[in-house]
Design goal:
6-stranded antiparallel beta sheet, mainly beta, globular, 9-stranded antiparallel beta sheet, 2% helix, 320 residues
Length: 320
């Protein structure tokens, strides 16, 4: 079944849950299975590691929402898979794209809820141009090492299905303004985009360019809405990306190899995209593939009938 008319609306999230563990606290919304806050206990009270939003309000700029069964955009909502032409609903009419999948504005079911962990699930369902039934789960868990987020996707249909996933996570260094912070991205290449936020060429090396954040750089005056790849993976198989305040505290976002792309976006009032109550804000979004992957084929996943995919990422506090 496709989405009902009511589930298509950009309605506010009203049902929420809390988990605590290892000195961390997270708030999860049923709508979009959204991560609406992550904070760590500090000597003077809780320290925010993400941008936040209140239950009963619309998640600003899709903050903390899951993007599936594709992240980012599909050109003209059209793609060919297994020789079949598909036409999706255009959900970004200004750019004539199909954007961010089907599940970020729908309510997810709670599968399990403990003090330090919650698991939610949803069936993607069938939609215009999308004949592929998938079941998604997300597990948020807190511990001494912070937040670990585990995603699964299972093809519950009878034919192979294309798939991609992303997460629209915003990071924050307490109450320090973004322009006083530095960012470090473990990324060797970036994908140029056109005015429709679609790829305009092949990946380019960032070394020596304005997109080189392999060493910490101040965010003052920086504008970004950029897919990065060639992520530098540590010995534990994780890439790490850091936002730090001047005193060295901040947030690290890490991702396992399944998430080979990172979209970095700076919300900026001067560009007409302000994060409420904060102004400029930084999204670091782990993704399995770049924009328009269903047409380019770059890192597009294909799930056979009954096949399950798993991907893991997380966040933790930096410094004292």
């Amino acid at each position: 079944m496709g989405e009902s008319q009511s589930s298509k609306t950009d309605r506010p999230a009203t049902a929420g849950f809390e988990i605590r563990g290892g000195g961390y606290r997270a708030g999860i919304a049923a709508t979009g299975a959204g991560l609406r806050l992550l904070e760590r206990d500090g000597p003077d009270g809780p320290v925010a590691l993400t941008e936040t939003w209140d239950l009963g309000t619309r998640p600003p700029l899709s903050a903390g929402l899951i993007l599936a069964p594709w992240p980012n955009r599909i050109r003209d909502g059209r793609f060919v898979f297994d020789g079949i032409d598909h036409q999706l609903e255009i959900t970004e009419p200004g750019f004539a794209n199909a954007s961010h999948g089907f599940v970020r504005r729908r309510d997810w079911r709670v599968v399990h809820h403990a003090d330090d962990r919650i698991e939610l699930s949803i069936d993607v369902g069938l939609h215009k141009g999308w004949p592929y039934p998938l079941r998604l789960t997300v597990d948020y868990a807190l511990g001494d090492d912070g937040l670990t987020v585990t995603h699964t996707a299972t093809n519950t249909g009878a034919i192979p299905a294309p798939f991609g996933m992303g997460f629209h996570s915003y990071v924050r260094a307490g109450d320090v303004p973004l322009d006083e912070c530095t960012v470090r991205l473990s990324a060797g290449t970036r994908l140029p985009l056109d005015e429709r936020m679609l790829p305009s060429g092949g990946s380019q090396a960032v070394a020596g360019t304005e997109y080189d954040f392999t060493s910490p750089r101040t965010l003052s005056g920086v504008a970004l809405d950029t897919p990065f790849s060639a992520l530098d993976v540590d010995v534990d198989g994780r890439s790490r990306h850091e936002l730090r305040a001047p005193d060295g505290t901040g947030t690290v976002l890490w991702a396992a190899r399944e998430f080979g792309w990172l979209q970095a976006f700076v919300a900026d009032p001067d560009a007409g995209k302000s994060y409420p109550g904060r102004g400029r804000a930084l999204a670091l979004e782990p993704m399995t593939c770049p924009p328009d992957a269903f047409n380019s084929g770059i890192d597009q996943l294909v799930l056979a009938p009954g096949q399950q995919w798993t991907g893991v990422w997380g966040m933790s506090a930096l410094g004292s």
